[in-house]
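Interim report to the steering committee. The following record documents the input for Alkylhydroperoxidase AhpD family core domain-containing protein (152 residues).
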Amino acid sequence: MSGRMNYYRAAPAAMKAMMALEEATKELSIPQSIRELIKMRVSQINGCAFCLNLHAPEARAAGISQQKLDVLAAWRESPAFDERERAALAWAEALTRLESTGAPDSDYRILAAAFDERERVELTLAITTINAWNRFAVGFRSQHPVDQTPQV
């Protein structure tokens, strides 16, 4: 698969706005580890290899264990995730799959029990932002670098 276009070059003002939004998410009160888990899970759902490749090292740098990353797709069945992580992941899935979930009250109740109002808004912004990035990367077929390490 090859990339379709360089969207930064095609619409620099639009991408400047996206970068400003991304920078704003770095100032949120939500812990970076939760933000990175959200980025990874949403990118898994959306099939965004570019974003998964980009955010896996950032997730590890934020203190997320490799074990958590390995079982992230099955987080509901894993004891590795705490209450806040579970609430954030459920909300991320509900909003990413909005057409089929409708953001159910059950997920919102779990979210509200784990996060205050400000944090809920911030989580929603972080989820919205990574979904937008996934749509750019998947839609325009952004390619991640391939590890060229020889296999023995």
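The radius of gyration is 16 Å. The committee is asked to note this result when reviewing the revised timeline.
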